[in-house]
Amino acid sequence: MDQTPDADARSGPGAPIRSGIPEHGRVPKYYAVKGQLEALLDELGEGGVLPTERELAARFEVARETLRQALRELLIQGRVRRRGRSTVVAGPKLEQPLSLASYTEGVRRQGRVPGRTLIGLERLGADPQLAGQLRIDAGDPVWHLERVLLADGERVGLESTYLAVGRVPGLEDEFDPGSSLYAYLGEKVGISFGAADERIETVLATPREALLIGTPPALPMLLLHRLTRDSADRPVERVRSLYRGDRFSFTTRLEAD
Amino acid sequence: MDQTPDADARSGPGAPIRSGIPEHGRVPKYYAVKGQLEALLDELGEGGVLPTERELAARFEVARETLRQALRELLIQGRVRRRGRSTVVAGPKLEQPLSLASYTEGVRRQGRVPGRTLIGLERLGADPQLAGQLRIDAGDPVWHLERVLLADGERVGLESTYLAVGRVPGLEDEFDPGSSLYAYLGEKVGISFGAADERIETVLATPREALLIGTPPALPMLLLHRLTRDSADRPVERVRSLYRGDRFSFTTRLEAD
DNA sequence: CCCCTTGACAGGTATAGACCACTCCGCTTG
DNA sequence: CAAGCGGAGTGGTCTATACCTGTCAAGGGG
Hints:
homodimer, about 260 residues, alpha+beta, Arc Repressor Mutant, subunit A, two-stranded antiparallel sheet, 8 helices, about 35% strand
């Protein structure tokens, strides 16, 4: 969870730097405060409630803004979480396999209960880019399904899916937005999945996204763009999944060529 | 590059929210300032130099700290970059394929010139965890190779590799730290690669890492952990790669089961 | 007994001011 | 002309203060 859980991150205290890059040495005060906070988190243990910002600032003898800078980094790393008006020590990250298996499967494998909250299901006309990706004509009707992803009831991500109405005409009537879309497409519609192209990057949540997922604004998120095809290589859906960067990691297995 | 390049991120201005999550409406001032800054960036174009923070704060009639909060988000997103003592409009992200091909290959495919700077090459004893992963005995000698990754001379990442000395005894003498390790292992040592397990997550750079890569501290990074095996499924190396989150995205292709 | 009001208090945002380390340019010096 | 020195100005950090919005628990009213 921490960015340096591994000893391999450092060459050791006295390790020689053989490049022209200077070794700075100087440590900002907020970083020292962060270290003190981390020690405190270990004492408190998972789920423990932190004292208020003002009290911590007084205890460490720094300004509240300085303490907040340290706290902000711990928040981004997922070491602490906001819960109501208090701050608590967080649990470990979830590992999600990068595979065709749905979000449901990945979360279940971690021993957690998956869930979804419907934000919106609407029918609209495809813009040229989307039409090209789904291999339909621009303006053709597409479903736009937007859901918040849950793990043990906790909001952890936001998923936005586009698929052609022509391919799944009965979606609005037949599909339960709280269940797995992949299961529906596979079992009810009879689509067999083929390859998918994915792109992963880190982005910042917009205020709207942060609000929907329930994170502080500007938390780094993992953005997954996926274009799924069926076994005949026809496009099925375009998905944009946004996961809390402090709560998720993705794993994959690469095979030799 | 922006976190909402796609219209699919939004349901539209008047889109109904069908869940119990409230629509907030309020926009912090720094977020409005960020929007004004983005408009300015478009005017300036890639490579354009921004006015100073103090001047921008005066122009938008906000405190410098407020302006800095907006600028900090643009920095994290990779929309702007620090260059010396000035701030410039940044170019697009690099896409790196998630495959066994080396860093070298990925960067070349983007039409850029890859490079590396040696930070350190040392020989040390394996700790129990590393020994288990490399299937050697604890205390057995391992190489630790740490290099800064370059694209067109720009520092974009930090790579830390561990591999058993017994497997590659001549590394220190034969290997040119500025070249591709994969090419050396494949061509000179005669290792044929098999599958690899990878994990991707976002972390914050430590001050040391930020210094080596030349980023502002606490920039979100993409952390790639990889355990590479040969075609006989024996472990070859453990790699910890840290890439600038504002400069990289990773792509992969998932095949059906 | 439950619901709702209400206010204390938490974190979020915004401001002004100060100092520091580093970069970079121009100038001096060899 | 090249190298090196120095100062101006930049972003980085830190402080102190103020006000706002949302949370939550206590207490009053139904």
